[in-house]
Amino acid sequence: MNPLAWLGACLIGLSLGLTGAGGSIITLPVLVYLAGVPPADAVGLSLFIVGVAAAAAAVQRWRAGDFHPRAALMFALSGMVGAWLGARFTRMVSPEILMASFAVLMLAVSVKMLLARDGDTTEAAVCQPFRCVGAGTGVGILTGFLGVGGGFLLMPALMKFARLPLRAATGTSLAVIAFNAAAGFAAHAGEQDHTDWTLAATFSILAVSGSLAGNALASRLPVRHLRRGFGVMVLLTGGWVLWRNLAG
Question: What predicted TM-score, i.e. pTM, was given to this entire model?
Answer without folding.
Answer: 0.78
